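Late entry, evening session. Most of the bench is empty. Finally got around to the prediction I had been postponing all week. Sequence below, unchanged from the version circulated by S.P.
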Amino acid sequence: MMWPGLNAQVMQGSEVMSYKQLPPNPEYVQQIITQRDRAGQIRYTSLPPLLRGWSGSRFPGQSIGPPDPIGDCT
């Protein structure tokens, strides 16, 4: 379907467009089916705990060690 103002222009020249039904498009249907099939094959890779990140002011499970030296002061 073509809906003016949503997925089509409202005016074409000086003529106000109205909604109309488009002819069937088998290629579009085939693309939707392939995208649906591909979306079902998502595999999530697990990240190690140190790469997952954290929130808040504490670093649970991670040792950050001493602060970096600045100049000759360690």
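Two things to note before I forget:
The chain has a mean pLDDT of 77.
The two ends are 70 Å apart (CA to CA).
Will write this up properly tomorrow.
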